[in-house]
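Lab manual, section 2.4: Encoding a predicted structure.

Procedure: take the sequence of the chain (301 residues), apply the prediction step described in section 2.3, and record the output as structure tokens. A sample record is shown.
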Amino acid sequence: MIVKDTNLTGINLLKKGKVRDVYEYNDCLLIISTDRISAFDVVLPTPIPYKGEILNQLSLFWFDYLKDVIDNHVITSDVDSYPEGLRKYKDILAYRSVYVKKAKPFSVECIVRGYISGSGWKEYRKTGTVCGIKLKEGLKESDKLDEPIFTPSTKADMGEHDINISFEKMVDIVGKDIANLLKEFSIRLYIKASNYALSKGIIIADTKLEFGLYNDKIILIDEVFTPDSSRFWPLDTYKPGEAQISLDKQYIRDYLINLDWENMEKIPELPSDVVRNTFLKYKHAYEILTGNKFRIEDINR
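Recorded output:
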């Protein structure tokens, strides 16, 4: 079943994000990962079948794997354990939802880069910096950095663009102590996750993390190390000095760039081969990282 939008009658829809619909229930939150896909902060007209299930299941894997670094917002993902008022929507919620603590999100996105790519590479070529951080000379596209760098951004609403900010600006937004903790947690999480992924044959080039405050404690929220929030490169095809084969949303970005989408009045529906290839990339990343076979083989059924 393709889930592009949700409508849980009688349940308070708190927020409709680019990909996730967030409901409020019993002073907790229900997060549903839909099959919507966004690129360049625009929600595309064509959903990717089962994408929400993959994102949700992969995040759950990482939340569990990383829980010794920092606590997270997960209460349960077992629909049969949800409050009675939610269980009637089991057909929609199974595999693609999680019932979580209602944390207060920090209004910044925590980005960690271990390799130079994307917007970071573009900036480096012009200024020798990434988000204002001076890097050594002579780096090539997709090179591994000597150590991961922390490059926060604003957290934009749907239809608006995230903006890279300096660490000093982040301090102005959340305070010095919180900023230092978020930076420390982000780098620790990235190092642990990227080392694990590397052992499975995937490079995590960079990632976006989000945190919230719950009972005066910082916890990890939202999604974690998914193809929507991270750059995944197969280790066996990695070749510094050029753009990499990806198992993430970069495939969609590249398609739109080649389409010259910015000059279009309306983005057209994605072709069936692009939809299928996107699904297969996400599925492949999930299976490599978790060691589990995705439960649906035929996206056309």
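Check your result against the sample. The two ends are 9 Å apart (CA to CA).
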